Amino acid sequence: MLLPLHAAGQYKKKGHTLSHFYISSYTPTLAALIRARQQLPRDASIPHFVSIGQGNPHNGTPLLRVTDELRDIASRVARLAPSLPFTSLSDNDATVKQALDALDRHQWVHLACHGMPNRQRPFESSFAMRDGPLTITDIIRPRSQQPEFAFLSACHTTVGYASSPDEAIHLAAAMQFSGFRSVIGSMWSVDDEVVGQVVSAFYDEMFDGSERLDCTRAAVALHKAMKKLRNKIPLEQQIVFVHIGV
User: Fold this and answer.
1) Topology given in CATH for the domain delimited by 26-245
2) Local structure of 191: helix, strand or coil
3) Strands (E), 114-224
4) How many Å apart are CA 89 and CA 98, to the nearest integer?
């Protein structure tokens, strides 16, 4: 993904933008979208939700607001969906192995960490964990728990291969290829100062007052969240997050 097509509009003239008329969603490939749409819906059981945050990665710059972000998500889950099975992994618990185990056991995932794109070797693009990189190669494998939704609160998660920009090999696509039907990813750097506002507004929209979580609400929830924040955060942060999938 190279162009933020969802942000098209007449900004200099303060006219309408695409978001005034449409709710945008992307897909890495048509096959991936068809596969996500054809996946059978889950039964009536409540999905398991895990938040994974790594603010002190191996050989990485600390992210000072990850703890607050995970705490805010936990608070919203407790208030808006109290019976939802919820787990949080952070700091020393957010290792490569623990994260992979969590991806295998949970249908809903929130990842807050550094996103590390590798534009020369895209399969080595990774999320920075406590003990090293969680790479695309690690992530792309079948899941047994019918994964549904992932929010990638990290930088550059939709950045692909430098010499083949039309090939969708990036972190967000890897999550969908591994089975997640709906994914929120980022097109460039995420501002640590405002990402908490985006995450809070998004989950306020995702939880509709019932105990049932629906991954197909994600595109609408992101759209509504950014509409609420339109006059509160910089333009580039209003359009950095994109929806992929169903």
Assistant:
1) Rossmann fold (3.40.50)
2) coil
3) 115-116, 126-129, 132-135, 149-153, 182-186
4) 8
